[in-house]
Amino acid sequence: xxxxxxxxxxxLIIVIASLISxxxxxxxxxxxxxxxxxxxxxxxxxxxxxGFASTSVLMLAGLFIIATGLERTxxxxxFARRLLGRPTTVAAAQLRLMVxxxxxxxxxxxxxxxxxxxxxxxxxxxxxxxxPSHLYMPLSFAAILGxxxxxxxxxxxxxxxxxxxxxxDSDGAKWAGTLGFDAPSSFMQFFxxxxxxxPCLVAGLGFIVLASPFLLPIRKAVAADDLLDARNYQxxxxxxxxxxxxxxxxxxxxxxxxxxxxxxxxxxxxxxxxAVDPNLELAEGDRLGFVGVLESVIDLRGIRGLEPDDDxxxxxxxxxxxxxxxxxxxxxxxxxxxxxxxxARFRTRYRAAILAVHRQGAQIAAKIGDIVLKPGDTLLLExxxxxxSTWKHSDEFFLVSNVPExxxxxxxxxxxxLGVLAILVALLAFSPVDRVAAVWGCALVMILTxxxxxxxxxxxxxxxxxxxxAGSIGIGNALVTTGLAQTAGEQIVALGGxxxxxxxxxxxxxxxxxxxxxITNYAxxxxxxPIGMTIAAAMQIDPSPILFVLMLGVGGSFISPIGYxxxxxxxxxxxxxxxxxxxxxxxxTILLAVLCAFIAPLVYGS
Length: 606
Description:
By secondary structure, the chain is an alpha+beta fold. The protein has a domain of 88 residues: Regulator of K+ conductance, C-terminal domain (Alpha-Beta Plaits). It contains 25 helices and 10 strands.
């Protein structure tokens, strides 16, 4: 190898070591390595910045906006709660959880899907009196497996496909087009990975159900917060006309045993019912009283058909899209002290409605308008997004803080968001329309229909992910330019080529699975793709089996909690230890590697 190759190898080692150490952000490590390669003269500015204008990065940016629209309209939570049902055994709970989550993950961002299911799983574990550790890891693994059903299931699929298609250019610039292999159709590009992804999903879910009783230890969940010290609020909600919960029992509507929340009473027709029976069927106009922590109050606001039981909320001048929850602590100098909420004309003065009041470790059960405010009272407000900036420096409040993720869901737009998603799938799978144009066109419709506001769309784009992908593509160009990709590919062929294509595919799968544990799945995809193409060229075979197996491999983040974001999301709630993932994930990874190695040559040709 020449100096450029050795220099690139050294830079790559530094980047990987930085990522493993967690001492700097992924984007800083990747972009730092890219700058070092430019300074060393290994790649020019065009090769280094190619990833920033790549179709994969542009597509992902638009898909983040579409995912935001699906999340903000409640489309994900609506489907999740309908599909999950009410299981009675651990195995049934795992299947009822994993099947819909995996199918949804093939078409939606799996991070919000897992986020929605976290509280549902906690409810199940409490009701069935089982350890949540037997549900949380299967939840994450199912979301990962489901990402291998379509092109848009995960970022690494898009990166690999967008790198792959140009290898069939008719001008002969790429070798695949000169050897008589056909470029994949639009349908194949979108659903092609499902040919091995679906069998792997079925086998993977079956393995998890059968093996988890033996491989997953019983762990005690790490509490997200201390409910004894958390601020409890008493809030009221009313069942509005047309609500989906009308006719359902309190149990069926999911209003019993909510984490950190207690249904304290039901009022119907102005009469308080003597007891809250879980079999009581809800009716229009029912007023429900809850006592609970703030996080659970936010969950209540996300249930379609329930609205705060306060006419002051309905009188707020701004639309629901512009509303959020805010906590404000009354100061000793506030003109509110000594006055009732009604006397203070709170809504008129502050353009906010009080949902609940917390005082000295206890919630106040009186009607909001009759509460006489005192210094130190914590007010839970529904107000506009600019309330904090307006009042944070005022001496009327000690502290003003926005409640994260408390913007009301726009349930009425859920059908619109799902329709946009259906159009996107049709355009990507069956239409000759450019994929970037299709994605961004649908993203624009999400914004124009107010499924996601402009601010939500901007905030929904994961800029760090895009930077990592763009930088990784530049580093991948350095591997090709210096000949490192070809050298690595030839060495792998020399090592396993004599064992046949299945053995080679096992090696490729495992290389992707291991790399993704340390450098993320999308960085692993960008770096391993040129090596995979070199292997196909050396063996003179159709590269499609290698491509799709690599998709499964880099997406197989089952070995550690740091390999994928959903693994980290369930790490604390499941009470897991670091090596718990390997106990279930290593045999699962080996099973999927062997399965892919034998199925891929049959379904894609060789």
